[in-house]
Write a structure and sequence with these properties.
Transposase (putative) YhgA-like domain-containing protein; five-stranded mixed beta sheet; alpha/beta; two-stranded antiparallel sheet; about 325 residues; 12 helices; about 10% strand
Length: about 325
């Protein structure tokens, strides 16, 4: 399943294609800064029913090395099927565009990064035929940018640093530096960085820390993330109001129930007093009379019957208004 962090890890290179040349210095490649970059279609499907899609595909034009292609793949975990797909991407792109093709894999954990950067061959033992060794960007080689001034120099790289270190306990320091650096940036620059960073952090605790950092700054008032936080706050406030209303209603119901119980107890007392008077006067109280008295919930009616019981000749006479 494609997650928001997966999308952010490769789409950030679409947002700023020149990011690759700045990242390459940490990967031991040191690719020259391109003089031009073009996003290409990512669908590598042929006429056969097998569908192949690379995450991000860019064409770079450089003054020193000429044009080349860069396929960017976001990888969240080890996948034995991926090396074959990556080899297909590289060979297909090389065949289709007749251009040198590089593969960059972006990871967020060291285990996956170590696996991805190992040379992978498609041939039998001692006959490598085709060897694939992608460049890998991850927590093992991406810088920990914790200085706001350093983050300000390259906001997109700082965002990628936060994304690749999303699971690192020190990511909060990167996020603080990035948030501070973004305060002076115009909205059209800051807002995409805010959203890339939020998406790249996935559902990790760091995302909540990031949301709190940017939501308190009015410069991010219109950003997707700030609005998302505000909506969550609204939901929380709504729930608090609902809880307060529920408690208010509960208290009203308690008062009503207490009154009902008090009235029931009074009526039970009146019924018992009525029966006692009839018995004390030696009148025979039939089951029908007893049931009619004990099932009556009208306090005024019971009081009236009690008055008649003082002079009634028979117990049933209390129900007769003429008694």
């Amino acid at each position: 399943m494609v997650t928001s962090s997966h999308e952010a890890m490769h789409r950030i290179f679409q947002h700023d294609p020149g990011l690759f040349s700045r990242v390459s210095q940490f990967l031991g490649a040191d690719i020259p800064r391109p003089v031009g970059a073009t996003a290409l279609p990512t669908d590598l499907t042929e006429d056969s029913p097998v569908e192949r899609r690379v995450d991000t595909l860019l064409r770079f034009d450089t003054a020193e090395q000429g044009p080349f292609l860069l396929a960017v793949e976001a990888q969240g975990k080890k996948d034995p099927a991926k090396p074959a797909s990556w080899a297909y991407y590289a060979s297909y792109l090389w065949t289709k565009y007749r251009l040198p093709t590089a593969l960059l894999v972006v990871c967020q954990d060291l285990t996956t990064a170590k696996w991805a950067r190992q040379p992978m061959t498609c041939g039998p033992a001692r006959i490598p035929t085709l060897t694939l060794q992608p460049l890998v960007a991850g927590p093992h080689n991406m810088p920990m940018i914790t200085d706001p001034d350093e983050a300000r120099e390259d906001l997109v790289l700082a965002s990628l640093a936060a994304i690749t270190h999303a699971a690192d306990p020190g990511v909060d320091a990167i996020l603080k530096a990035l948030s501070a650096a973004l305060k002076d940036a115009p909205d059209d620059v800051a807002n995409p960085i805010v959203e890339f960073t939020a998406q790249g952090l996935g559902n990790r605790p760091a995302k909540h820390f990031w949301r709190n950092l940017v939501a308190v700054d009015l410069s991010f008032y219109r950003s997707y993330l700030a609005e998302e936080v505000r909506e969550e706050v609204r939901d929380a406030v709504r729930e608090e109001v609902r809880d307060a209303v529920r408690e208010e209603v509960r208290e009203e119901v308690r008062v009503e129930v207490r009154e009902e119980v008090r009235v029931e107890e009074l009526n039970e007392g009146r019924a018992q007093a009525l029966l006692q008077v009839l018995e004390d006067r030696g009148l025979d109280v039939s089951d029908d009379v007893r049931e009619r008295i004990t099932t009556c919930h009208d306090g005024d009616q019971l009081s009236e019957w009690l008055t008649r019981a003082l002079t009634a000749q028979q117990a049933a006479d209390i129900f007769d208004a003429q008694a």
